[in-house]
Amino acid sequence: MISKGLLKYIRSLQIKKYRLLHQAFTVEGEKSVAELLQSDFALETVFATQKFLQKHTHLLQKGFEVVEVSEEELAKAGSMETNNAALAIARMKPATDFAWQDHPFVLALDEVRDPGNLGTIIRIADWYGLTAVVLSENSADFYNQKVIAATMGSFTRITPHYVNLPEFLQKRPQNVPVYGAALAGKNVHKLDLQPRGVLVMGNESHGIRPETMQLVTQPLHIPGRGGAESLNVGTATAILLDNFFRNS
Amino acid sequence: MISKGLLKYIRSLQIKKYRLLHQAFTVEGEKSVAELLQSDFALETVFATQKFLQKHTHLLQKGFEVVEVSEEELAKAGSMETNNAALAIARMKPATDFAWQDHPFVLALDEVRDPGNLGTIIRIADWYGLTAVVLSENSADFYNQKVIAATMGSFTRITPHYVNLPEFLQKRPQNVPVYGAALAGKNVHKLDLQPRGVLVMGNESHGIRPETMQLVTQPLHIPGRGGAESLNVGTATAILLDNFFRNS
């Protein structure tokens, strides 16, 4: 049973202002909550069905509250239409400075606004072994429930760093190239790319902002041959990362 | 102004049964309707705002009804939350047989169920210059409004062929290889792939069905190096198509 007060608190976490205020966010669904329970995130409460609790007993020994609930209660409390497993309230991690020496290859997002796209990109970054993503300040919020859901658990392995992106690029170590997806860039299929440097992906409608683009040293282009004018930013990120990692 | 009867008709087209019955489907939003007007699809009616009508006058000279409506009416009639441009009712094209000789490279989908994924895949197929997609009978419906929206206009350049996929593959011309995305496949980065043959992509949860998989002659795998267990089927299709077309 979820109390009225808790229900209100859970729902408030669907709004960024309240996530920031409480430094907490929600995670929904079996796979995501199971990955969360195996991560180093601190938890406040796990609401779960009897079935989930039985299946994942070994993950529930830590210092947080566990509440058994029905599927209906989960659907009512969360943002998913159906949820037959669990919903967890987790603590946001304190923001840390980006350490260049730990990340020979950096994925940076310039105003990627759609939560589904950001979640997809985080999942792809995790697939290729990245452990951080750099985001301009007005990009979608990493802790948004739609972002978390779309990462399919990868949010537990990727650290977000929100920065003033042009400034961040200006202050990069010497000789670090900045790649950027741009229609007028070089054909990625003709380059022998190595995962060293920064790759900047731009906004869904407007691409990379001019103030960021002027810091891009290596514009890249995925050659198309059909009638489509563009690729979705998640799709383009996947193809570019594959081109960077295919030779390494 | 949209009459009550027309409103009911438009809404009924959000359901597959009624699309089949009427052999019609809806297209929403500025880019999609503009691409539709430049395609060879037959139209029944275009509902559009004054702004859209003024901007696209040159596209509205054909033999179909044009009705000026408000943004509120468009949102009320269609499936999009906001639509400040247009909604069109278009005629489905009669199904045609698949002509192997016209398609040296074939993308085949085995039970891809999510409309958003199918739409994304059609957009990617169009980017790489394909003009058809083969789908198993229980895949998502090409004419679903969410599929149409996610293609960003590419639905006008790709012909869907719904088939019994195992049978279709069995009857393929001699020496046509069948590639399939599978965890136990060969590393795509180590192969010199050429766009000849069939590429099969499987269901979001279950991958390629056993009866289809036994006809795959060349299983392929995208090597990952992080913690993510899998890639979204749209993402995987994009990466694989890029690997097929990068050398050609």
What this model shows, in words?
Two copies of one chain form a homodimer. Chain A is an alpha/beta fold and about 250 residues long. Chain A folds into two domains: about 5-90, Ribosomal protein L30/S12 (60s Ribosomal Protein L30, Chain: A, 2-Layer Sandwich); about 100-245, Alpha/beta knot (3-Layer(aba) Sandwich). Chain A has helices at about 5-10, 15-20, 30-35, 50-55, 70-75, 115-125, 145-150, 165-170, 210-215, 235-245; strands at about 25-30, 45-50, 65-70, 85-90, 105-110, 130-135, 160-165, 180-185, 195-200, 220. In chain A, the strands form two sheets. Chain A has a six-stranded parallel sheet with strand order 7-6-5-9-8-10. In chain A, strands 1-4-2-3 form a four-stranded mixed sheet, with helices on both faces. In chain A, helix 6 links the parallel strand 5 (about 105-110) and strand 6. In chain A, helix 6 packs parallel to helix 10 (about 235-245). At the A-B interface, helix 6 and helix 10 of A face helix 6 and helix 10 of B.
